[in-house]
Queue: 4 jobs
Job 1
Amino acid sequence: MLEIFITLIQHMGLFLIIAYLASKTPIFKPFIEQSTRLPHKILFCIFFSIFCILATELGNRIPLKDQLGETQFISENANSKNNNENIAIANTRDMGAIVGGLLGGPIVGFFIGLVGGIHRYAIGGWTAIPCAFNTLLAGCVAGLFSYYLRRAHRSDLIFSPLVAGGLTFCLQCIGKLVVLFAARPSGDIVLFAPPSEETINLLKEITLPMVFINSFGSAIFISLIVDRKREYDKLASNLSSQALRIAERSVGILTKSMTTKTGEMLAKIIQEETDIGAVVITDTEKIIATIGKGAEHHEPGLKIASEEVECAISQNKVIFINGVEIQYDCPYSNDCPFGSCLIIPLHENQKVVATLLLFENKNKLFLNINRSLGEGIARLLSNQLLNNRYNQQQTLLVQSELKLLQAQVNPHFLFNALNTISAVMRKNGDSARDLLLHLSSFMRKNLKRDSSATSLSEELEQLDSYLVIEKARYGDNLDIVIDIDKSLTACEIPSFTLLPIVENAIKHGTSQSLNKGQIIIGLFQKKECIYLTVEDNAGLYQSTNDSKGLGINIVNKRIQNEYGERYGVDIAYKAKLFTRVTITLPLVRQEHDQYINC
Amino acid sequence: MISTLIVDDEQSAREELTELLKKHQDISVVGQCANAVDAMEVIVKLKPDLIFLDIEMPRISGMEMLAMIDPDYAVDIVFVTAYDNFALEAFEKNVADYVLKPIEEQRLDLCLDKIRRHSKSNEFSKLAPSKLKHLPCFSGKILKVVAPNDVDYVYSDLSGIHIVTADEVVHSHLSLKIMEEKTDLIRCHRQYLINPNSIAEIDVFDAGNGEITTQRQKKVPISRRYLRPLKEFLGFVS
């Protein structure tokens, strides 16, 4: 029995060494993946079938013993077939069927079991049929078990050495029982007859070694796979965490366009994270930034001189100089320490705007990981550049819309105001002077405006100047009521929000009314929102008229751009009675003003 | 003396112009109006020789008001505007004069000189739109603007011109002639204009005259003279 033990351990060791070596090659990759595709399954079938056949062939052939325990000597001249008739084989075949079934599923398990079984049967011997059957059974059961685990979403258990060992143990025990009750030295199959003496003798010898070695072997095989899997995962997670770190650190750097400063920051981040020799960033003409020891001669500002970089820019493709077949030939200095280089174009809207150059020293190999990482970073940066461009255009759009709003107002308002003032001057110099001051204050604030937010109090101040002038213009024909919650005046509001609405109310509302006009301006808070209302009593709003709605549309768009769809401008109106415009804004108090209030 | 009417929706602008005109002995300001409806009333009543007309006015612009002035009535019009490129271009091509707000004294003097030298003309009517979009009306002291499409029929009697719409009867200073020319209303009687869209039935009498029943069951007479053109318009005559 000890002899069998040792032989089996040797076999197991041999198989595990083969498996270990295989695990170092790409062939092994399917083994560590949980999803098994058809090519993988075919690979499993072939691999484990060979395993089974080898295990049987290498197996410890045990001659039949008679009742006395004496070995029946085989006659010298007996042919090999007869030779085999009296033997049983202690082997590690089932291990292959079980591991294969577990990894590949029921069909793979069945196939491996079948191949292993047929092969075993073909060898012959008095235990051939039960043993072949056992292998088939082991493959099928392991396959079904694996299928069951997958269905139960416990596929992690497939890769548990304990489960594999336990399963093998059970299947081996069942197999030995089958042999016990079915095998006859004559080679016949007699079911459910009391076991023969020879069988018991045989099982005494082989049961223990086979059950334990097979169970142990399966467990080790699976744990080998698990280890490889962990290693792969770790590598992948390392790579992705590195990429993520770069992504995280570089976010926001490119919010402005690529300049020497932003380029330098980026290059620094990439160099630190990848630990690569040097990182150089160029635009389409010259070097923008250089980071890395020995790379100083790639001075920012120098014109691009390398053919490869020019090629990468003009053809928009990644160029890799591996440093083995082709050496990087530095155009700037003969003492350049770098041998390999990866040139990645960065594009914005498919147009190359910059390149990222990763250098590695002559005595170092350019890691493949860094290569794929570099390409990933380039994609990330390109996206950032695109996003940046989009943002710039968005800002431009907002600014130009704002200018449009301002331009719409100014000429009419200015001429009317001057006209009013010149008329008032004749009657009352002081009030004319007052009006002029209001006008100048209004104009100054108008000039100062940009697209940023302002405080409500500031907006109201300007509105006040505006209303004083309009009131002087329309006299008794215009009545203005202001109903404002004073505690809210520190709130933030996008600049140029309220004024266009009030202007609209006067221009298209009260000034078009044949009777006396009234405008009510309200400000109140409800929950986390503030509401600004501008109501006129003309009720002349026409939703179909686009040009009149332009100002309101722009205000609405700007608010929604800034704060989201929940906010914006609503219009309620009843013909000939009123038009009410409501601006809804989030309650944002300006910190600066709060500080002053304290 | 040149009787002058100032039409401007801003009180200060009216006062300013009145003040400037005081220096000219031959100008007498007979009225100031804040909108086209009031202005039409004064024009009909006082028939001024000269009108200073603002272009930007509530509901009915100065341009549209031009179309409402009886073409037989000769008057000088000076447009007053603060800022309107479009209008300025129109003026350059035509005889009608204009001054810009705030009004310069020299420019006003020049303008008045021109008016004194030339006889009154109706050239400005070239500027006027050919169709009216609004009819200036009043009801008591309330001023109203009625769209021509909303009119059922219009009639005149000794007290003036009356416009009948779906829900009210209002009055206007526009003549039937102007309304006939510049809207889609058609003449059915010397004293009546009818909106063809509001005709429900036409009764033709033996005497050669007839009567219209409107969609709202109002009766409008048709005189003999207008029966045939009306029937032709509606497609009844072969």
Job 2
Amino acid sequence: MVFSSLTFLFAYLPVVFLVYFIVPAAWRNPVLFLFSLFFYGWGEPVYVAVMLFSILFNWLFGAFVAKYRKKNRELAKKWMIACIVLNLALLGFFKYYDFLAENLQALGLSFIEPLHLGLPIGISFYTFQAMSYPIDIYRNETDAQRSVINFGAYVTMFPQLIAGPIVRYRDIAAMLTKRTHSLQKFNAGIDRFMIGLAKKVLLANSCGMIFESISALPQAQTSTVTAWLGILCYAFQIYFDFSGYSDMAIGLGKMFGFEFLENFNYPYTAVSVTDFWRRWHMSLSTWFRDYVYIPLGGNRHGLPRQIMNIMTVWLLTGFWHGASWNFVLWGVFYGIVLIIEKTFLLRYLEKAPGWLKHVYTMFIVLLAWVLFAFTDFSQGLQFLSRMFFGASAFINGVSIYYLRSNFILLAVCFIACTPVGKETWEKLLKKEKRFIWLRPALILLGLTVCTAFIVDATYNPFLYFRF
Amino acid sequence: MKKRRNENIVNILSAAVFAVFIFGIAIVNLFHGNGSFSENENRYLASFPEVSAQNVFFGDFDTEFETWFSDQFIGRDTWIERKAAARRSMGAIENNGVYFASGQRLIQQFLSYDESQLEHNIRYLLDFAEENKVRLNVLLVPGAGTGEKKFLPFGAYNVDETKLISDIYAQMPSQNCIEIAPALSSSGDYYFHTDHHWNAEGAKTGYDAICRSVLKKESLAFSYTEVSDDFKGTMYSRSGAFWTKADPVIRIDPVHPRSFTVTFEDGSVMHSLYADARLKEKDKYTYYLDGNHPYVNIKTDIEGGRRAVIIKDSFAHILLPFLACEYSEIDMFDLRYYNGSVSEYIKDRENTDVYVIYGAETFCTDKNLAVLW
């Protein structure tokens, strides 16, 4: 069940709201926990067992780490490492087992068979969340959670279960036991949720359709302009999809009294690739920084060691995004670019004019999205070649059609990548307070249009031609 | 003080809008009756899935539930229309692959086709002609995207079917290829506004071309009667532009009355080229020859006349009222549904005209011409 589905919006969410706000405050975490488990188990009920196991051992091991962290650092460390290993083993089994088996088979070593198990939803996200728990306890950055229900509510919490942000336990520990609900906070939540929903349903899905249709064009219809438009649409799709999801998560979190950290900060306005990664999926970058890069020594042991640390982090980052070689390549590509920037390019870049910084950054980012978009190398290469010299024309009727039909959509996407919309709205409110009355109308409009797009996505009149 | 109060009222109002919207629809959904058939989608809507431990834990209960929920969602068609309207107001010139053209026309988008499939299809036809030692009369009909190009919005792109058809014809020089694209692009109303087929006027143009190129004679005279004004075709359904005006359906009769006996693959017989009952259904194009059938045999009251074998898609259906008046007997095959032999119907070669009649787009994409081989 995704947030942008009719089942979520008009069945699951109303029931959760109803129960959550009717029960006494003390029952709210159990209610949240149970409903989150239901949400998690909706697609694959059997995996609820995996989730419960995950919660239980993390909670238990966390308790042991807490117990020994003062008296016996060594022992506490062992518990922490055991916990990390167990988490990684679960993630590795579900996410990477088939990948390993298939690659071994390709090498002629077929002693393990792919299992073709479905991936438990959100496993990459909640495993990372869960791992932060024993580590932060060990580092004395937080205390163990006494209640397994509260801990379970943290791990499974449905707003951020599927696609983040990756919430670290220490950032949310206090809110688990004591948080406030207010009309104002609920409204901030609605606004944020609506922004996210609109980004996902109106922008991401529409751009996704353009990219799909462009990448399916036969060679004779291709042009350089169309190819660039295609990858630009992919960039829009993935940003609005992901950041829209984060917005919805943050919004829902607010409605239930939580404050999650921001996950995106207008990444496409970045002035360098280094800057881009400070703005894109921030909860993941922070996670890797705090739990991999710095423990490895970060930049404290000289340049060669730092380069190795950066490459390690980016190899893992790539691999985290999916069990496929193209993601590894994507990670390595970013690792190399970041090292180049760190060693000398940033110094030159700083002196460059603003527009050049943006053009350079987006050029690298778009190239990287090609690597990301195609799990099949030959397709990715074909697309790349069309972007540079392999298309049958520079611009043709097909390009003009895509530009003409999606002109306003693309313009909206451009603006939505920048803080302009938000700033204009705030300026407007400051100048003329009456504009605040537009809010309910905008919410109604947003809900209506988004619902129309979601219903339409299930509309299937194409069968007609076969009858 | 007043500012805070206003802000509070707006907050209450906004939360109320949000809550009423999701709770309201949830409750209405719960109590409104389930529909069973979607005319626009030409399919049965999902009903509530089976609730059993087996289905919930190991089956597809989740997806079945979500399909049921969206299929039975309150005001489904209205939401779809709203989406089409929203896209249009956002400057899009098409929705779901249908262009919003001028004069309330909905025109199918035709962006690309599989060139190797087309090559195969040409090969199949040529082999078929050679094997049966016949000269094929090939009529490829361009879609409205080419015929009604002048009505398309600025920036619309379609495969140029005039060029496509002449390229295909160039590859079969020994067959009799019937040129129709220029005539259908001239001024006139040759296509349904809400459907992807040509209309009676378009088919008449096709018939005239056949008279010139195959039959070498003057066209016969026909009369035209409107039998329905409420045809909402495939493009209507697909575009979601449910505000578009419906098309008329025209019955075509020869001025000198003729009688016809139409026999279908299952032996059922119709004493007319028209299926009147179909006028009550949504897809009224099936009025012509009862829509898609694998095999249709038409006998007329013309004695001792010529015979015809027609390999076709649905573009031929509206042409048959004209063509049937020229033959004693016609055997018609739709290869998408027929998989027997066509050759055995071409016994009396001297006295038989063999036609291939397709919409150009189907001819490029159809994977069933291999049956001829």
Job 3
Amino acid sequence: MDAYDTAGDARHGPGPEPAPRKGVAALSLRYQIAAALALAVVAVAVCVHIGMVFLHVAPSNTVSKKHGPAIEDWIYPEFEQNWKLFAPNPLQQNIAVQVRAEIREPDGGIRTTGWYDLSAHDGRDIDGNLLPSHTQQNELRRAWDFLVATHDNDNRPVGLRGDLAESYLRRIVVLRLDREDAAGPGGLVERVQIRSRTTNVRPPEWSQEQVSDKPMYRELPWWEVPEDEAEGDPA
Amino acid sequence: MNRFALALSAGIARVTECALGPYQTAVVRIGFAATWLLFLLRELPHRHELYGPGGPWSFDLAQQLIGTNGAFTALIWTDGRLWFEVVYALAVLFAVLLLLGWRTRTMSVLFMVGVLSLQNRSIFMGDGGDNVLHLMSMYLVFTRCGRVWSLDARRADREQAARARGERVTDRVGPALWAVLGFVLVAATLAGRLDGDLTVPLILWTVWIAQAVWWVVGHRARTAEPRVLLDVIANIVHNGALFVIMAEACLIYATAGWYKIQGSRWQDGTAVYYPLHLDYFSPWPALADALSASGTMVMLVTYGTVLVQVAFPFTLFNRRVKNVLLAAMIFEHAVIAVVLGLPFFSLAMIAADAVFLPTTFLRRLGAWAARVRVRRADRAALPRPRSPENPEQAHVGSPS
């Protein structure tokens, strides 16, 4: 890529003495061979790496299907990437995560709270915010995506990641309930239930499109909250 | 055939005799270090919730996931609260030092350790911006990104001047830093803390050994040749990494662009409207409404976005077109920062874009920054009327 020029005068001798700079030309044959070897190794490494990343981000194809494990070995865990930014289509629904809890009162009674809209809370925190925090913008949103990706249609976890996703989401909602002081004085969160509320973004005014504005709910079963977690505070 | 051979040897000479794009790599270094630094400072109040041992993504959950993929994070070494605070503080410190270009190679490695330690600890907290930063922090390790606009460059100038005066220059900080980090590296390896995926331990060990070899050859070699060879190898590695950084940026845009072409919303020209109306990405609803008031405008921006992303890699073969598209993309990212509430993502993308900025522009930017600094220093230095750009000092940013 010769799309930019180089400033030849910006070289600096990092060595203790200003070494004479002539590149390979200044070297005797023995050293030239070593330099050529280094060049070959780096060239191959660069090509392989770019090739692997390309196959990783490209759609599944003949080559990537054939060499799937080799590509995964190279890419994961440190070179993983996903650049389908708002693609192929941007998300066209607002997905809100809501939670309600069963509280054990100090007198032993059980009380069920109303639904807390945690995403709406995030939304309010983001409004007018020049620097939204990852805790407001990514935490709950991505935890829900993670849960959906690791659960079947009957909301049962699939594999280890499914269990991890459940614990993660549970810990997030317990933390948020604690901040809302949902348990009240002396109360303890015993169980939580989470649901998502999906609404279509209303189409632009200048379009003739019609979409339903009725929200759709996906309700997860009630989850027990381990006792040590109910009092937990991350800070 | 002869022409091919000539071009090949010219190309080999070029990639071996110098580290290409010194200003571009420096600006990428500064850009990513600044992005990460600002992010860490912004999240300071939320650091426990994001990466702490008792956060929602608890130590136990992180341990289970990392058990399956072997990703590198120093935060998994112990669940101590103090250790977490130390790692966070060090990540801030390394970002500052990389930004300033102090012991740049070593700091680039430590910067990478800081980035990976925090990000890999809680991967579900990140977004595209974190992803770019993650990759670039690894690629930067292989570049000579401190040759200009750095404390290292200033030190090299001073040492050269001192040597010209016949003074002896001995560096004690470098070997001391190397020894301390070597101790940590050996201890971590022996304790089995680097037993996960091989990539990161390999980088750490390679750089540590390479620095020892560099020092020994620089101080003990009787002829100049071994030193020139090491310099050539460092240039080759730098140029390879620079190429990877550019290719990565192109892959990001190509992927983002080509996948969009397949989407019905990008085809019907309404795509840009939707992110503007998602609760999680609309900090300024009134502004979003104003921006999407005209269907024609939305359609133009939608098509323009796809066009620029798909076209960008191809425009690298034409400097003028490339620069126009680059300006457009940097502008679009600046808008995204505010309108979609993604400041750190945008900053990271702009830092990646910066690798394609033209040298003349960067040099002018450097000279301008140096002038501002001189002027400030003059103002601080009391009654003396400020001297118009001292040619000596105007060069602090661009050693000759």
Job 4
Amino acid sequence: MEKPDDDRSSSEGAAASSPLNNRRSAGRWMERPDGAAKAAGKLVYLTDMKKPGMLHGKILRSSYPHARLLEVDVSAASQMPGVHAVLTADDVPGLNGYGIVTQDIPVFCTDRVRHVGDVIAAVAADTAELAAAALSAVRVQYEQLAVIDDPALALAPDAPQLHEGGNVLARTRAAFGDADSAFDSCAVIVEEEYVTPRQLHLYMETEGGLFVPEEDGRLTVYSPTQHGYKDRLQLSRILAMPEESIRVVSSPIGGSFGGKDELNVQPYGALLALYTGRPVKMHNSRRESVRSSIKRHPMRIRMKTGADKDGRIIAHRADILADTGAYATLGREVLMFATEHASGPYRIPNVLIEGLSVFTNNGVAGEFRGFGGNQVIFALEGQIERLADRLGLDAWELRRRNLREADDPGPLGQKIAPTDGARQVWEAALRSPLMTKRGGGAQGEEPWLLRGVGAAIVMHGGGLGYGIPDPAGGRLRLADDGKLEAVFGFEEFGQGVISVLTLLMRDHFGCAGEDIRIVIGDTDTVPHTGSATASRATAMAWQAMQRLAPPFAESMLRKAAELLGCTLDQLETGEGGIWRTADPFPVWDCQSERSSPEACSPSCQTLALTYRQLAAAMAEPLVQETSFDFPVTSSATPAVGSHFLYSYASVVTEVEVDMLTGKVRVLRTDHAVAAGPVVNPMGFLGQIEGGSVMALGFTLTEDVVMEEGRYARQQLDTYMIPTIRDIPRQVCVEAVEQLPEDDPFGPRGVGEIGTVGLAPAVAAAVRNACGSWISRLPIRPEQLIRPYHAVRQHWRGGDIGD
Amino acid sequence: MEWTGHSEHLTAAVGMTQVWRPDTTEEAWRLKRQYGTFASYVAGGTWLRTRWESGSSVLPPYLISLDKIAPLQAIQQLESEQEAVELRIGAAVTLAAIESHPLAGGAVPLLGKAVSAVAAPSVRRQATIGGNVMSRSGDLIPALLALDAVIVSYSQGQYERQPLAEWLAGDGGDCDKLTVGFELKQVGGSCWFRKIGRRETFTPSVITIACAYRADSTAGRLLDVRIAVGGAGMAPVRLYEAETAAESGASGASVYAAVRKGIPSVADDYASAAYRRMAAANVIAAELDRAASG
């Protein structure tokens, strides 16, 4: 296997100690099969597909963030030449609604619009230009309503109600001990409000796809999603078609990060294709994507945390207010996750967490990598830093004094799979050379550049949680052409599930890359294995393979033994086929189609039977299937949504603050992640590095600013994600792989955890650099900038006031 | 209660824009005169395109491309009796061409630094100096102001030269002129350019500062200080008071105060006017203090 040049360790050599880099020489470093084509821009995505005779679909969205819809007149648009369909709510044969859990998002609005992404009509025409012209010819009569652009406004007693059930989507409460009275016995108490931004997923491929009505009456949907079967179910309700009549082809995907788990343009493409009887292509512009897509929940989190004089945290209160926008999607589940994670990896005897997720006219917030953990960990770790400051203790030591033990219950009191991950990553952080510099600030290359080091710790649950259906499974098949097929319902949206499955197949069967075929992303061919979400795909693939591989291998060997006339223990699977393990040994003679000891020659001494020969000799195709559920807690009455498998991470970072401009640069980050054995080192590294870049945007530059329910930044020219020049010069990732000896669960997911810890680590580093406490993200240069005379004073030896 | 059409879809709907590609300045100018507001000159189109897409301006039925007019694509050295190099840069010269041209990006470092701070390499290969200036908020403007650049325009068989600062002070309403290029001198001494953006690169400007000066080491003073600021929808300006303060050997604090006074008040959803003033004043004061003590 070709190994790439070690570009990371060449950046000042610091990454050389990373176990993940050592893996490169151990033969597990696998270049992702889809990597080269993606990097070269040659990979054909579903949104690149075309078909002869296809039409172009476009969607008319609301002109107002909140209005009554009085009349929709499509007559002029329908009569335009080249326009083949103009659809509204009247044209939905089935359920006029969708949503992963609650189907409250109208496919087409009927009487009211609740955000500027709400859909009123959809058009199919010969060209995209004609479709756009038709949209402009649809006449809509609105009556504007008061816009609720802040969750606090939504909670006012006289606020207009956005839904029949009111403006509160969800309330959560987690309580242990008696937090309120425990504050009385605390030596120090810190209280702060933390504010986090609305973040865009910013997948490179905007939403879209090709929707094809087939001759047999079925519908094929080529459209990216994180869960083909869920889309199929949702579409079957809308279209009033049996699920089996819909085929969803959903990979490859140009990024998702949670953003494509919910439906987006699929209902419109499907309806237009069925109405016109022609293939319909949909593809959002970036502007349409910003306007219509779900975002990360902005949260306002008030925390009050108290400790005794020795730094033992006694009481912790959190009040979470989430802006969930106009519809439910996974707003309730995100809030549940935030509630569960708001006390982090700490043992705190008295805890009260209360959450509110509130409807507003600010677009729609939903699933996003990190799932509510990012916001609450930013707040919680901020509290730890403030407590340490008040106590005069080193903040890392304060964490140690409160860190959970391996056998402690989970944050909601539930029994969780015991691991020592929290302590392992705590210790790993101390191996970062940056940690010796923590606490004190330092000067950079100019007197106005101030440096500081900060660190944070993260505990993050995988899977959907207790009480939420979370099925998994998989299928192995020996194909007619001799390929060993791994067939899974997961999607490849860049996270590397194809590499993971390939490596697992190699591990179990010792086979070569060319012996393997990975089959994913097509509801006509793959089994139900649940959504590729919640850091679960790698963990579930590993567990599925544990169940599938031994019996599948045995079936192959049994047949091979029968054909070769030997015993099972003389054979094993390997590169190219079935190999003998002992001499003397017969091989399969292709000509005579029988085993012939005399045909044995030195060159074919070990490979006894190719997979192809084995497949040809099978009377029936060899197939092994499994289905099971994501493991959940065995507690008697656990909270719904509470998790069982957790990953842990620590982040250490050094930043530099330019006091003349207030700008923050992150110079280096060191990550340690305890998530069990690493299946795919390159994928693991990619998840943590990529996740931390996403977190850097969340921390420094990204915010979907809305003004009165409208998007103030609609394009990538004003919505700023990090570029190569913004990211730290050095990113080191250490994987802590040790699990307790009897742990049966194997690798935990790392898809999300890399996005969580950077923000609080940077906030702590900024505090250590220049003295300012950060409680709002993204960090505003306006908070940190100081006038020239104050900066001057500092570099002459004075101090910069806060 | 109101009926609403959805005009935001109209721009995308119009597929009938006609593009003229004249060979001469005269021909381009005539076409513009013929079509008036129904036509727009276009070179790289990078800035105009964002305007059309956002609906800030309407894609006109006619575009007059400047890509085939040879003098507009040229960088040439002018005859000069002085030692300093004098340059004329055609309005349709791309930023990438300026960046790599020995006479432009090389010999006029302030311009080279400014060009490198605009957008990203792919955009710079298309975007032109003329477009950057005609946007009236481009990052090159502060650099050109600090270089005392002259804008050359064409109208009715006549070429006109006007100091850029003067042109900027006008309302830009004179659409009878076609900007054909810029003239500037290579100035000796030192310079720096600083773009404070929303991120490290490929970013809209929050505030952009260009500065040129000469240090008189014997007298320990700064001479010929030229400071200009711009960016983020602000009308770019020279900071004459701050220049005078710096030249008269004033302290950083006085320069700071003079800069603050000179910067127009512009705020957007990213940064307040107060932030822009302080950031610009800080950077200028710190750099000039360093130069003076230098």
